[in-house]
Model the fold of this input.
Amino acid sequence: MMMPIQWLTDELLGQIYIAHVFPDILFQAYIFILELLRHLFFTFEQYKKLLGYVSLPPGLAFAVAGLGSGLTEAVVVNPFEVVKVTLQTNQNAFAEQPSSFVQAQQIIKTGGLGSQGLNKGLTATLGRHGVFNMVYFGFYFNVKNILPVNKDPNLEFLRKFGIGLVSGTIASIINIPFDVAKSRIQGPQPVPGEIKYRTCFKTMATVYKEEGFLALYKGLLPKIMRLGPGGAVMLLVYEYIYAWLQDTVTHK
Done:
């Protein structure tokens, strides 16, 4: 027979999971699907088609299409980033942890939909995603077209994975100052009630002046560890699913 304390603990954990954890799992799943759709089915390919009407070298077209997809993505995901950062920096997380949806409502109520509310740090997010995608897509497709294709499927897989890994790593190194600025703007300010970090480039300048150049690269190693292999996998998924879709349409 289950002891009362154990039953109470299980019930409490169950309620916490249903009220807080499960909505956040759905929230993160939505973000993942959004990322997948952005890469596979929408913005990058749409921008590539639009740039087909402009006389741009193919290599530059890939980079510009990546920039466009990153800027579009930033506008869509920034409100979710604001909610995520607010939840992650909540010092009373154990005592009271609102769900993502409740937190979004609170942010809108106190700060509105603008630069002090649900779209706080938008310029930094635009820089982060725009620069990353520009380098990520531009480097990958340019280098992939230069390096010879391997007839062995396993070696070809490794070739694409290696290029994707380097693409994600280089893009992470170049865009991380925007990431640092975004975290400072969207996170808690040093002095409660006073807004120290407001705009992207001003925040970068403040961090550089007060903490030095290397402060703009805080968190670089875990970022590379996440987006290096992650970027490689995402591009491989993109490549193989896109090829499969083309093959399916051709044979219909």
About this structure: The chain is about 75% helix and 0% strand. Residues 2 and 63 are 61 Å apart (CA to CA).
